[in-house]
Amino acid sequence: MSPPRDAGPIYADLVDAVTVLQHTGGVNGAKIGAVGFSNGGYFALWLAATTKVQAGVSYYGALSGAGTDKSLARFAQVFTASSSPVLILHGTADDTVPVAAAQRLASILDATGSPYQIQIYEAAGHRFERDLASAADQSAATDAWQRTLSFLGEYLKP
Questions:
Q1: How far apart are CA 32 and CA 61, in angstroms?
Q2: What's the pLDDT band for 2 if we cut at 50, 70, 90?
Q3: CATH architecture of the region 7-156
Q4: Max CA pair span of the chain
Q5: In the chain, where the domains are located
Q6: In degrees to the nearest 10, what's the CA dihedral of 106, 111, 112, 114?
Q7: What's this model's pTM, rounded to 2 decimal places?
Q8: Distances from the Cα of 74 to the Cαs of 4, 22, 42, 83, 86, in angstroms?
Q9: Nearest Cα to 56, choosing from 67, 64, 48?
Q10: CA–CA separation, 37 vs 62, rounded Å?
Q11: DSSP character for 69?
Q12: Count of CB atoms situated within 10 Å of the CB of 99
């Protein structure tokens, strides 16, 4: 299957937004990160893969492009050893985006030598940081936020 037809234009819009940020007073244009949730996680990773941002964080990213790319071919094509580092945060009880997608992405990143960190949260679901439906979601949300701050601090500090 091909990627969603809107993915290219959305990515282009996000690249334009990053360009605006790079030329905005008070912004260190050489140190921009992207954090995304579900579909946004897909785009945060794509921006990092293509070095449009210097770090990307994906919370339970819709990694298969809304189910159109189950093999994650797009990521296999765009991630390289020169890609910006990414942080992948995913729960095992995600019934929207199976955890297998995050594990598949990790294997792609290993094969390409792309820098990444991954944290899989046992029993946490999709939207774990918003729904807080269970103790697992609450624990994942707390840990994921601290990991996000640490990760971005590591890669975006001047």
A1: 19
A2: very low
A3: 3-Layer(aba) Sandwich (3.40)
A4: 43
A5: 7-156
A6: 40
A7: 0.94
A8: 11, 26, 10, 14, 16
A9: 48
A10: 8
A11: -
A12: 17
Helix (H) or strand (E) holding 127: none
Tokens representing 11?
């990515």
What are φ and ψ of residue 105, in 5° steps?
-60, -40
N-to-C CA span, the chain? 41
Residue with tokens 């500090």: 157
Distance between CA atoms of 25 and 67, rounded to whole angstroms? 39
Buried b (16+ CB within 10 A) or exposed e, 24-59: eeeeeeeebbbbbbbbbbbbbbbbbbbebbbbbbbb
pLDDT tens digits, 54-73 = 999 999 999 998 888 989 99
Q: How far apart are CA 72 and CA 155, in angstroms?
A: 25
